[in-house]
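Severity: low
Component: inverse-folding endpoint
Summary: output formatting inconsistent between runs
Steps to reproduce: submit the following structure tokens with default settings.
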């Protein structure tokens, strides 16, 4: 008798508890229901300097990916022919047929660098600008708002489209996310900027000690080789000096990451 009454009382308690809405349940939003959010809590996309005056007056890190291997190549014949981004994985026979080495077709290096740079807090804070300078002398301006495809296949399709149309617009068409611009690169860099290039055989520096010595009113331009092999004279015509950032040989993507992190620390970006 007592056992039965105790069992019923426990069931009643559990039922009453389940009927009382919890704080979590009260906060749920039903399908189709809208919810007002404080506008101050919604992150705003940083403004991108567009005019020469804006570029001169805004301090940023400017990364130039030099010697990038981005080349559209026609594959197939007649109606089946289509353009693809030449790369060492898919087009080995084409490279051999034309007497070229596999290291001459490494667009994956550019892809990795872009993912590293554009995912950085520095870019999300609106303090990063990236340019791509290909081995074919094509100069590309990268809008900081762009979301680079995560997969190489989709990235390849995007680059082929860019090389043919010369620009890629956003979905709503209000701004260009990628665009081919006129050479030389120096026409697009702030005149009051400290320009360096990364080199494996240059004197190695600690970025935490080197960067604070740059005047606070100057932007920082860093040229990074986005190729697998080659000499590091790609930016000799416009940089002030060459530096090394590690005692070890680094991939271009890792070098970009080290630079971005060091500048974030310098400018107090978390």
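Observed output (run 2 of 3):
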């Amino acid at each position: 008798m007592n056992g039965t009454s105790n069992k019923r009382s426990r069931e009643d308690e559990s039922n009453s508890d389940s009927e009382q809405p919890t704080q979590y349940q009260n906060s749920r939003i039903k399908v189709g229901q809208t919810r007002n959010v404080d506008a101050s809590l919604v992150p705003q996309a940083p403004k991108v300097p567009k005019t020469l005056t804006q570029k001169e007056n805004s301090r940023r890190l400017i990364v130039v990916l030099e010697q990038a291997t981005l080349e559209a190549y026609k594959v197939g014949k007649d109606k089946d022919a289509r353009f693809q981004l030449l790369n060492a994985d898919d087009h080995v026979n084409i490279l051999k047929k034309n007497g070229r080495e596999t290291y001459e077709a490494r667009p994956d290096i550019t892809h990795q660098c872009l993912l590293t740079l554009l995912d950085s807090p520095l870019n999300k804070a609106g303090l990063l600008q990236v340019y791509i300078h290909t081995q074919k002398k094509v100069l590309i301006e990268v809008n900081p708002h762009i979301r680079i495809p995560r997969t190489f296949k989709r990235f390849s399709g995007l680059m082929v489209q860019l090389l043919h149309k010369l620009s890629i617009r956003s979905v709503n068409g209000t701004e260009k996310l990628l665009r081919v611009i006129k050479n030389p690169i120096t026409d697009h860099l702030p005149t009051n900027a400290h320009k360096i290039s990364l080199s494996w055989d240059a004197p190695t520096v600690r970025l935490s000690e080197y960067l604070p010595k740059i005047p606070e009113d100057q932007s920082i331009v860093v040229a990074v080789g986005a190729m697998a092999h080659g000499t590091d004279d790609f930016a000799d015509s416009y940089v002030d000096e060459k530096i090394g950032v590690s005692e070890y040989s680094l991939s271009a993507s890792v070098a970009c990451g080290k630079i971005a992190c060091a500048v974030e620390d310098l400018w107090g970006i978390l």
